[in-house]
Design goal:
Rossmann fold, alpha/beta, 8 helices, 2 domains, elongated
């Protein structure tokens, strides 16, 4: 991991994500790029205000953490600016704030993060407003495709290696809609998938988990709470695949409701 992109609107929500990104950048020795979108009617004045705020952010982080920090300001909508910044900077990771389970779900900044998750060609880490920085020790990666693809797993295990975290790989079986045969098939496949990952990432503690219930989100949240999970990982497909529970829409919804950071990794066609 060499480059981390952090959008900001200077809100507490964005500050939370920036603090999280700084912690990751410090451990991984990554370059940090902070971007801001100016959407105001008085463009010149708003840009000057933003430039002053960005300069203060850059100085405070550079002085305190000795990180390489750059800033960029775009004159466009927030989502368009972030997607353009991703194309310009080509980061390994985008870190954004989200409202999560704060009780103000799916509004303003949270919806921006959800829209970026839907469009981003690189992994996006959504950090909920009410979450505090904790070095991740237990990471849960939810899957419904058991094909080993290092482009999808490397970002997870890179973070795990930085913090010596364990990784749980989980599949969900819907006890209402899925057939009995699906349960047995999922159990077999997740065990095999976990074994394959152990070969690829021998220095990481890996556990295969089979979740079952009537509702995916409820089952997932119960497991997260009961097992002290620090980060959730979901793979997003920008096409709405029939039968896929991990399309971009589901991951967007999880970003609105999760109370722990959510790493959304795109499956790029």
């Amino acid at each position: 991991m060499k480059k981390i992109l952090v959008p900001t609107d200077f809100s507490p929500n964005a500050d939370k994500a920036l603090n999280y990104a700084v912690e990751i950048a410090r451990r991984s020795e990554s370059e940090l790029t902070i971007v801001h979108a100016v959407e105001a009617y008085n463009l010149e004045e708003a840009t000057k205000v933003a430039e002053d705020k960005m300069a203060l952010l850059k100085k405070s982080i550079s002085d305190a953490e000795r990180l390489q920090v750059t800033t960029k300001i775009y004159n466009d909508s927030s989502v368009n600016s972030i997607i353009t910044a991703i194309q310009d900077i080509k980061p390994d990771l985008v870190v954004m704030g989200t409202l999560g389970s704060s009780g103000v779900k799916e509004l303003v900044y949270g919806s921006r993060t959800g829209n970026v998750i839907s469009q981003s060609p690189v992994p996006v880490l959504a950090v909920p407003l009410l979450s505090d920085w904790n070095a991740p020790k237990n990471i849960l990666m939810a899957v419904n495709d058991f094909t080993v693809n290092k482009k999808l797993t490397d970002p997870v295990f890179t973070l795990a290696a930085l913090y010596n975290a364990s990784v749980q790989v989980a599949v969900f079986t819907d006890t209402v809609d899925d057939y009995v045969e699906d349960y047995d098939e999922h159990a077999r496949k997740i065990a095999l998938f976990g074994s394959q990952l152990k070969v690829l990432y021998p220095n990481t503690e890996i556990h295969a988990v089979h979740l079952a219930g009537k509702h995916f989100r409820d089952s997932l949240q119960s497991w997260i709470t009961d097992n002290q999970i620090d980060m959730l990982v979901m793979h997003t497909h920008r096409r709405n695949l029939i039968g896929s529970i991990f399309n971009s829409s589901m991951t967007k919804k999880m970003s609105y409701h999760t109370n722990i950071p959510l790493l959304a990794i795109p499956i790029n066609d």
